[in-house]
Amino acid sequence: MKLELDALEALDAVVRSGGLARAAEALGKAQSAVSYQLKSLEAQLGVALIDRGGYRIRLTPAGEAVLAEGRGLLEHAQRIEALARQFAQGWEARLEVVLDGILPLQQTLAALKTLADEGIPTRVQLAVEFLGGVQQRFDADEADLMLVKDFAPRPGLAIEALPEIECVLCAAADHPLATERSVALAQLQRHVELTVQDSSGTGKDQQFGGERVYNLSDFTAKKASLLMGLGFGWMPRYLVDDELASGALRELDYVGGSRYRFTPWLVYRENHPPGLAQQRLMALLRP
Fold it and tell me: Which one is predicted more confidently, 63 or 192?
């Protein structure tokens, strides 16, 4: 395409200011240069854009249509220039985050909303994986950050501890295990255990060794399965506090312990200095 943005800008300036002289002054150009741009634009498009027969410059019907489209093009070009300036200041074009599905999604989404509200130009991709699948995705995609329950430390990875999360072993109120006292491992193994499938296909989620294990896609499906009495399993407390309080779910009286805590980790690459978007996101995710 031979269409020049400067020519569209000149057409817009002439209409807004009401004449060639004022348009030239607004653009910081000679009046003859503005006039030449307009004539060149008409020649390129093959239509008359300006009706020069009257006392004041007026657009032809074709000129009105071209200017309407042209203003949209000019606004888009201005956004591109502004975006380029932000990238030149240190904002990344792309930021990929991998989140372990056992961690609170709401907190991460709230941080991302803050980035959006602040007008940060970086395009963010959030992937949710489980267990070994988190680090596998982090490595495969060369992602920038991962928020993970467990991972294999190695040189080149920097880590920061996040607030502890407590998990509880529970079942529906009408499940046979819910009313048992001092539940032994052998009793658990006679019932269906509900787990979340490792998205890498290699790990297990706190399994008790019974013959009947249902692997579910995520903790939303696991919670729904628990509530309908399908089986028992571990759940993060923040996801089931309301159901435990109402009695819809009950904490099992397991002799091996019905609760455990773990420390999640914020992991990023030491050899890849974080840009402004990553720095801001990490600040929002820290306790």
Answer: 192
Tell me how far the alpha carbon of residue 18 is from its chain's centroid: 46
Nearest to 236 by CA among 222, 216, 256, 217: 222
Per-residue pLDDT tens over the stretch 189-225: 999 999 998 888 765 555 898 999 999 999 999 999 9
Judge whether 99 and 126 are in contact, CB under 8 Å.
yes
pLDDT of residue 61: 87
State the greatest distance between any 2 C-alpha atoms of the chain, in Å, as a whole number: 98
How many C-beta atoms lie closer than 10 Å to residue 71's C-beta? 16
What are the residue ranges spanned by the domains of the chain?
A: 5-88, 94-163+264-285, 165-261
Structure confidence by residue, pLDDT tens digits, 149-205: 999 999 999 999 999 999 999 999 999 999 999 999 999 999 999 999 888 876 555
165-261 CATH pick, 3.40.50.450, 3.40.190.290, 3.90.1150.10, 3.40.50.300: 3.40.190.290
Residue 255 has pLDDT above 90, yes or no: yes
d(CA 202, CA 196): 12
Range 149-158 contact pairs with CB under 8 angstroms and sequence separation of 24 or more = 149/100, 149/102, 149/103, 149/262, 149/264, 149/265, 150/262, 151/265, 151/267, 156/269, 156/270, 156/271, 157/267, 157/268, 157/269, 157/270, 158/267, 158/268, 158/269, 158/270
Measured N-to-C along each axis, helices 5-17 and 20-27 cross at an angle, to the nearest 10 degrees, of: 120
